[in-house]
Design goal:
Order of helices and strands: EEHHEH
Largest sheet: 3 strands, antiparallel
Shape: globular
Strand content: 5-15%
Structural class: alpha+beta
Oligomer: single chain
Number of helices: 3
Amino acid sequence: MSTTERHRLPSGAWVQFKDPHTLRRGDKQKALRAVKDSEGGDVAAGLDLVNGLLQVLIIDWSYEFPIPSQSPDSLDLIPLEDDDALNEAIEPIRNVLFPNKPDPKDATDPASPTEPSAG
């Protein structure tokens, strides 16, 4: 398995992610399966998706507890100071798995002779 470099976190810990070029459809499916059907709305679904991504992407770290793929509850033990840094570190990989779809509102071309059809 191809890997990436270690990412240093604010607490001094490090984390290593799976190489995004080796990701497959199954990795995306595993991350999506972590999203629970709950009444928490978009915020809860977003948190579940981030946790699912961390379970798929983290292949090693320096914490004294198991990596998330072995024990998803390990994510609850990460120091708060490292949380934002982890989320920022996975953002480029998240964009590989879940690229933003084009929005027709962003495609208005003032030089176009016709009106946008999605208006």
